[in-house]
Amino acid sequence: MSxxxxxxxxxxxxxxxxAFGGQGLARVDGFVVFVDGALPGSRVLARxxxxxxxxxxxxxxxxxxxxxxxxxxxxxxFGKCGxxxxxxxxxxxxxxxxxxxxxxxxxxxxxxxxxxxxPALPSPATRRFRNKMExxxxxxxxxxxxxxxxxxxxxVVNVEHCALQAEPCMDVVxxxxxxxxxxxxxxxxxxxxRGVWRFLVVRRSEATGQALAHVITGPGPDGGAARxxxxxxxxxxxxxxxxxxxVRANNAAVAQGERQVAAHGQPWIEERLLGLSFRISxxxxxxxxxxxxxxxxxAALELAGLTGAEAVLDLYCGVGGxxxxxxxxxxxxxxxxxxxxxxxxAQGNAQRNGLGNCTFLAGDAGALLAxxxxxxxxxxxxxxxxxxxxxxxxxxxxxxxRRVVYVSCNPATLAxxxxxxxxxxxxxxxxxPVDLFPHSPHIECAALLERGGAA
Length: 455
Known about the structure:
9 helices, eight-stranded mixed β-sheet, single chain, alpha/beta, CATH 2.40.50.1070, Rossmann fold, globular, CATH 2.40.50.140, seven-stranded mixed β-sheet
């Protein structure tokens, strides 16, 4: 490593492309520098933050030339708030970069060859597209913050305006922040394990306009503050179907309750997707971009090639989104999900939609696959960002469905699991990226794997 790459060294860099994860990638005499806050084609003055033998990390000090793809950001919080990384990058270029990331991950990390990657499908909307957002609390008193994490930091930026979720949801956030300041109860501090407020999650149905507020607090007593907040929100916002209070004792900064304390009003909202009705409870997984999810599930169903005669498996089924969408095109569907409340939602959703050919099982994916009493023709797999558990990959390959349609929100773990499934006799044929998260580095994919490499 050259001396020019020592910590705090300043370099003029031309950014070649966007690296996976959202940083710009530049090269100096063949040495790679990853630059935060730099766009493809731009020229920047950057400061080295972390030298290394193989590459260096840097941050943009000043933009010397914004490059051909730069656009004006539309949010006053952009640059400080970590909710968006690419508001200043033309959307068509965002899609091109994400398509490249998918192809590169599958070839380089997954060792896949001979597959087709289609250009990423755009999100139907690039603003107001989220039906759910998670807001974090920090501090206390008049300085209590409620918003999103600062870019590259665990600290919280007070978000007054956000173009990712509908404005009525932001009204709820602003009202809750002021209420909590007036109450005077501080936010939970993970270092001391004291304080109350942890997260406010706001969901909103695209179909009905109803919203649901989920207040998550620390494990200690709150003196009735959470109940007061829930009741106040319901009184202030008629569009709120309910407000739920949950407790989370685990210090991990995850906006999910461990124990529900009380539900004020209706503890769920109804959403519609591909003509189906879904009841969504506070902690249930549901795709956060409803029109985008329709495009993603549509791509997955097309890859599955269902004729109406197939037995279908939906692994990591959540509240049954893909399972129910497939049910009208298959003979039978079996959904597997570890989160028992989500399975209850899935069963109820099947009943509400008059789909009697669905069975949902709660438990560990690997164990339930090993005990399945039939071999599915097609398996949908839609795991969390961490991908499939190794035991689940092995059990799925041993089960041997003819086609696997893998829906992924993380190209890196998709690539890893594609490589593992290849060891079990599956070949990657086709990948369709779908953008559900404009202005972020995230990209969803529907990937088709065929047993023995043939349909």
